[in-house]
Amino acid sequence: MSLIENKKKRAGRIVAYLKRAYPKPKSELRYKTKFQFVVAVILSAQCTDKAVNRLTKHLFKKYKTASDFARAVPATFQKEISSVPFFRNKAKHIILSARKVSSDFAGKVPKDSLNLQTLPGVGYKTAHVVLGELFDIWEGIPTDTHVRRFACRFNLTNNTNLTKISKDLEALIPKKDWKYVNNGLILYGRYVCPARRHDCTKHPLTKLWPKAAIRWIGSK
What we know:
It contains 12 helices and no strands. The protein has helices at about 5-20, 35-45, 50-60, 65-70, 75-80, 85-105, 115, 125-135, 145-155, 160-170, 180-190, 205-210. It has 2 domains: about 5-25 and about 140-215, Orthogonal Bundle (Endonuclease Iii, domain 2); about 35-135, Orthogonal Bundle (Endonuclease III, domain 1).
């Protein structure tokens, strides 16, 4: 069996577990409107979902639609989101994205990855998280820190760039199963196998490929 075939088989077994464990992929970020979810994902970069949810619990009472965010006063908005890392850049990106959605897309979040990636602060990962969550469209596999570390630990990629890891995973996993990868590995990484070094020999995925127990590549 070739190296690629081995990787495909290993990826297939991982995805089969994720489908059983997390059959309905859903983000833990809280929101009520589609643009609020875009905002929440931008805020979540280098930040936990719990911290974002604490912030947006109050923020989303004031800002609901793209036009609400587009009218935000930058200095005020920066202060309102200052509890998350990189709040200045995030404030800038959110306001500019809101203005673009309002002016170019009639206030509606685009339903394709190319248009989504024209929004400031929205790259490949964010675009595909948004598409999957809001529209159940899975044109790609979003790679965050959890997906990255498991892709590396299970020797499914040699890349460190998040988009390149996404492409490697997309080549190994059938498109019909892409929807289970991101949310599945995020939940598994949060509640079963966290990033800190520990004995995970008895964890479900490690049992599928025991070598992962000693591979901590890409855990940061």
